Amino acid sequence: MTFTETLARDRRRLILEHLAAAPEHALGMDVLAVMVGESRQAAYRDLVYADIERLADHGLVRIEELPSAIGPQREVRATALGLDVAGGRAHPFVASKLPGY
Fold first, then answer.
1. Which residue among 16, 39, 74, 84 is buried most deeply as judged by most CB within 10 Å?
2. Cα–chain-centroid distance for residue 89?
3. Is residue 69 included in any domain, yes or no?
4. In CATH, what number is assigned to the domain containing residue 79?
């Protein structure tokens, strides 16, 4: 596994952990991108968006378009499988939970 893929798998774990801790296991896509960027590793917004899309492809999150006065907003919600993976269930697309994190 390359260094880049190791970082990507860790970002995906961070995304799922933030969603697991959020009310109703959902956050706005922009808020989530900022939270991940301020966590263990700095990440550009486009990288986080791509990770969210790939998590959705794997059934770990759902992306919903919500109407808003300023235009449609995207909300990311963890699925039951995503919550299991955030809690430590193994998944080849997401880094394993590290002790102490």
1. 16
2. 15
3. yes
4. 1.10.10.10
* 30-88 per-position pLDDT tens digit: 999 999 988 877 788 899 999 999 999 999 999 999 887 887 889 999 999 999 999 99
Would you say residue 99 lies in a domain? no
Distance, in Å, from the CA atom of 7 to the CA atom of 72, rounded to the nearest integer, reads: 30
What is the Cα–Cα distance from 25 to 42, expressed in whole angstroms?
Answer: 23
Strand order in the sheet with 61-66: 26-28, 73-78, 61-66
Total structural domains within the chain: 1
Q: Is the distance from CB of 86 to CB of 17 less than 8 angstroms?
A: yes
In terms of residue numbers, what domain contains 44?
3-86
Instruction: Evaluate whether residue 62 is within a structural domain.
Output: yes
93 domain residue, yes or no: no
Hey, which bits of the chain come out as E strands?
26-28, 61-66, 73-78
Higher pLDDT, 71 or 100: 71
Whole-model pTM? 0.90
